[in-house]
Every structure is written in structure tokens, then in C-alpha cells.
Amino acid sequence: MDDCASDNESGPGLGAEADALAAPDEADKRKIIHVDMDAFFASVEQRDHPELRGRPVAVGGSSGRGVVAAASYEARRFGVKSAMPSVTAKRLCPDLVFCKSRFDVYREVSDQIRAIFRHHTDLVEPLSLDEAYLDVTEDRLGIGSATRIAQMIRQEIRAKTRLTASAGVSYNKFLAKLASDQNKPDGICVIRPGMGAEFVQSLPIRRFHGIGPKAEEKCRRLGIETGADLAARDLPWLTAHFGSFGEYLYRAARGIDLRPVRASRTRKSVGGERTFHEDQHAAGELRETLERIVDIVWERIERAQARGRTVTLKLKYNDFTINTRARSVAQVVEEKTRFAAIARELLEEQLPLPRPIRLMGLTLSSLEGVAKLSRREKTARAAQLDLL
Fold this sequence. Notes:
This protein is of the alpha+beta class. Helix content is 40%, strand content 20%. It has helices spanning 16-21, 25-28, 40-48, 73-76, 86-92, 103-120, 146-161, 173-180, 196-201, 213-221, 227-231, 235-242, 245-253, 283-304, 336-350, 378-385, and strands spanning 32-37, 57-60, 68-71, 97-99, 124-128, 131-135, 165-170, 188-190, 269-280, 307-317, 322-328, 357-368. Strands 5-6-1-7-8 form a five-stranded mixed beta sheet. It starts with 15 loop residues before the first helix and ends with a helix. Mean pLDDT is 86; it is low at 5-24 and 370-388.
């Protein structure tokens, strides 16, 4: 097992603001585990189809407008990643094998994994089918060691599902999630109390949850390349340059996260957004982008087994003003074709746009019959979708 702990207990740049934002003692005593399955969907396909083992595999549609939902580690070595257009993925990796999504199978395996989690603690906060936070401060079996529990969970997952998981162990959610990604795949990393600030400050800024390409570019323009660079900026400076996001960055650079693990929340909506590297204005480009977002969001709707009656289109213009348009229907949206048709109608009603946009998003809400699920953190979703 790799241990990510280090010797220093604090980092540079701590001042009066740090005292005001510091975590209370009880938060420092939490024992948090973040478990993340390794290339979950693709790994399930490789498990169930032995001929795919060792080969680059993508889950998702292979058609011209298809999108990669997940990629095996063999495919990732070629640059293939989730949310990438299938045509781009095939260009990067000509030998890529596409598998159709089987969410009924993925959910069944996810249920097995969650049962393992709940064998150890009632405080389980799923983020998606393949990852969750666990608070094992008071574990059900009386083991006491979060590291030992994480090892046991990974062993149990391998034995029952023939899949591998990576785990991060620390004293808060932010650090545990960073740690779970440190030694992937099939690894574990422990960040011990007092070591979070040094660990975070050694990371490149792109590793911070919530910092996508746009935010990373802005940080670089401001001379921020690493967590240590970020920690050297005080709170007023960060707020002046990043607004309310500045407080998050201030805390993150010091390894501070006060959020508790929440066992369950009722999902109110399912959606996704994409921020463009270049502003878009042409009707053809906008229609093509909408189709890709429909694919991505419908994958999430299927994962959540969600059905709703309201579709919302969000447009953020290049002057940062936001325009939203929503349409509610009498019957729940059961099919992707219906969801896509409503989304297209909403976009067509806005064309031609008065000025270019930098972001487009779609959301399905007014949900019915949805099981209680933990809400994916805003920062984590932003990192995945490059929202910032």
C-alpha cells in the first residue's frame, strides 16, 4: 500500500483568513473513505467478455453522433476519455472496440458494491454508480482503522464482483477524493491528519476538483501552476479574481473541507453543461453541440433511472448573461427521442442568437419515481464536464 502522508502539518500563506476558515476539531477527527471503481463500465464489459480483456474498449455509441460514456485504461493510453465524441475516439485509437451501454447490469453490480459499503457503515454517500464517500468514524464492525476498512472493502469488491476499486483515505471528503485518484488503478492512498495542506500544495492545479480547462487557463494567466501557488494568495485576492469560487479555492489549497458525508438526498434534476473553448454562434454548430449534450445527459438519466416532465435549455452568452428556457409536458419523458425533440424545439425558438454563447446545458426536472440518490458535488461534476 502506498501512503501519501508527509511530514509537515501546515503550508505557506496561512494568516488571519485561515483562522476564520479553519476546520473545527471534530471535522479533523473524521475518518473518510472515497471509493472509486476503476473504469467501471468498461471493466464490466471486459469482465463479461473475456475476448475484450487487454484491448482498448469504449462504452457508448459508435455512430457519428455517439459519445464515449466510459473508456478502459487500454483506451485511455491513446487519449480516449468519457464525453468524447466517438468519431474523435476512433481517430485517436483505430482499434477501439465499442460496447453498447448495459445500465441494468451496471446498476446490479453497483448494488452489490453498495451492500459491501453498508456492511461497514450506514454513512454512505453515493456520487454515481461507481463511486461513493463513506464515513467510518464509527464503523459498524468496530475495526477502528479507516485504512484497514478501505483495504477490506477493496478485497471484498474484488472477491464478489471480479472488479478492482481504488480508495482514498483521509479526514475530509476533498482530500479523500484526491487520494483515491493518486494511485489508480487498483490502488490506495492515505492522507493522514495534519498532512493535507502539504499534499494539496504539491499537486498541479488541474488536479483540483472544479478546475476545468477554462479555470486552469485563468489560473496560469495569474501565475498559479500548483497548489502551493494557490496557497500563497490570500482570500481577498482570490475573491477579487474568482468571486465566490475564491473561498473554495482558499480552503482547497489548505486541505480544508467541512462537508459531512450525507447518507442520501432526493435527486431533483439530472443534467449537464458544456463550456466551449471558443464561443459558438452559428446555427449549425449549436445544433450539433445540442445533439452531443442530449447524448451525455440521457446517459445520466438512464443511470439515475430518472423520468421527468420538464426540459430546460441553458445558454450562457459571451458577456456571461444567462438565458434559460423550459418546457413542461403532461406525461413524463420516457424516451430519448422525446427528450431530444423538446430540446431541439427550445433551441430553435432562440435562433438566431443575439450574440455568441460560451456554454450550453440541458436539464430534466420535475422528476417522478426516482430512488433517493446522493447528489454529486458541484465541484466534482464541474471537473468532469469542464464547466469552469
